[in-house]
Amino acid sequence: MKTVRIALIGYGNVGKAFAEMLRRKEEYIRNTYHAKAVITAICTATRGGVIKPEGIDTQTLTDEMFDKGLDAFAVIESGEYDIMIELTPINIMTGQPATDHVRRALQLGKHVITANKGPVAWRYRELRDLAQEQGVGFCHEATVMDGTPVYNLTKETLKGCRITEVSGIFNATTNFILTEMEQGVSFEDAVEEGRRQGFVEADASMDIDGWDAAAKLTALMNVLMDVEITPLEIDRTGIGEITKADIDAARKQGKRIKLLCRGRVEDGKPVGVVRPTLVDEHTLPAIMDATSSYVTIDTDLMGATTVIEEPFEPEIDHTAYGVLSDVLRILSDFYK
Amino acid sequence: MKTVRIALIGYGNVGKAFAEMLRRKEEYIRNTYHAKAVITAICTATRGGVIKPEGIDTQTLTDEMFDKGLDAFAVIESGEYDIMIELTPINIMTGQPATDHVRRALQLGKHVITANKGPVAWRYRELRDLAQEQGVGFCHEATVMDGTPVYNLTKETLKGCRITEVSGIFNATTNFILTEMEQGVSFEDAVEEGRRQGFVEADASMDIDGWDAAAKLTALMNVLMDVEITPLEIDRTGIGEITKADIDAARKQGKRIKLLCRGRVEDGKPVGVVRPTLVDEHTLPAIMDATSSYVTIDTDLMGATTVIEEPFEPEIDHTAYGVLSDVLRILSDFYK
Question: For B304, which of A221, A295, B157, B265 is 20 to 30 Å away at the CA?
Answer without folding.
Answer: A221
